[in-house]
UniProtKB/TrEMBL annotation:
Signal peptide: none annotated. One of its GO terms (molecular function) is iron ion binding. It comes from Photinus pyralis. It is found in: Endoplasmic reticulum membrane; Microsome membrane. This is Cytochrome P450.
């Protein structure tokens, strides 16, 4: 997806390109999620009217009074919403993604297709064959020790077990992954690009870190090398602090946590 994105800009053949950044980065986010979650190859920049992108826009469209009312009812009163038949997602977009996930699952099970994406992981979890990557623990622990904006992985899922997942459960997880990442990722990239534009010193320092990482890894960015880019982590964390994707969360802390004092006299 990144190569397609860079290639699209390079095809413009000019040192200065005028683009609508939000639209550009939204299409890029769409292609990344399509690949990571659904195993699809989309080029929304080259084919701007492709069905996956258009259905994604409909699915994440939150404009309109009744759309927000339905969101409130589904979120706060789920049982009432179920009783009244209130639906938050656009029926046409919902049907599209439901058929897409269902047909993908059926095709993979019949043909034995393996692709390292979210649908494959969910299918493996349903069969009880999902294995925890022990090597990844060491990588993540190194990032946490380096004070990156990482959180320790939950112990849930570290032991192999068969999970009762229906096709509807798999579809719901894939839809949630798409819905949560489509706008939020694009917004983060837009705000980060804006901040890098108005803070040239930050942009220069980040570019130096990226160039250094590319030199160390023969011009290829890997998962391991990405986790070692501390300044990139700082830039993204600051962008999220200034421009949070969500204004509230219903998650609850499950154990005591002490915020260590930074300055003398703090408690």
């Amino acid at each position: 997806c990144t190569e397609q994105f860079i290639g699209y800009l390079q095809e413009k053949g000019s040192s200065r390109i005028d683009v609508e950044l939000k639209d550009l980065l939204t299409r890029f986010s769409n292609d990344v999620i399509a690949s990571a979650a659904f195993g699809l190859s989309c080029d929304s920049l080259k084919y701007p009217e492709n069905e996956f992108y258009l259905m994604g826009k409909e699915l994440t469209n939150l404009s309109g009074f009744w759309k927000n009312i339905s969101l409130l009812i589904v979120t706060v009163f789920p049982r009432v919403a179920k009783f009244l038949g209130v639906r938050f997602f656009n029926p046409r977009a919902n049907a599209f993604f439901r058929n897409l996930v269902k047909s993908t699952i059926d095709a993979r099970e019949k043909s034995g297709i393996l692709r390292p994406d979210m649908i494959h992981l969910l299918m493996e979890a349903r069969k009880g064959r999902l294995k925890h990557d022990v090597d990844a623990d060491a990588i993540d622990a190194e990032a946490i020790d380096a004070e990156f904006a990482s959180i320790e992985e939950s112990a849930i899922g570290k032991e192999a077990s068969k999970i009762e997942l229906s096709d509807d459960d798999l579809i719901a997880q894939a839809l949630l992954f798409f819905f949560a990442g489509f706008e939020s990722v694009a917004n983060l990239m837009c705000f980060t690009a804006h901040e890098l534009t108005v803070n040239c010193d930050v942009q220069t320092r980040l570019q130096e870190e990226i160039d250094e990482t590319l030199r160390k890894h023969d011009g290829v960015i890997t998962y391991e090398s990405l986790l070692k880019m501390k300044y990139l982590d700082m830039v993204l964390s600051e962008s999220l602090r200034k421009y949070p994707s969500i204004t509230l969360s219903d998650r609850v802390c499950t154990k005591p946590f002490t915020i260590e004092p930074v300055h003398p006299g703090e408690r």
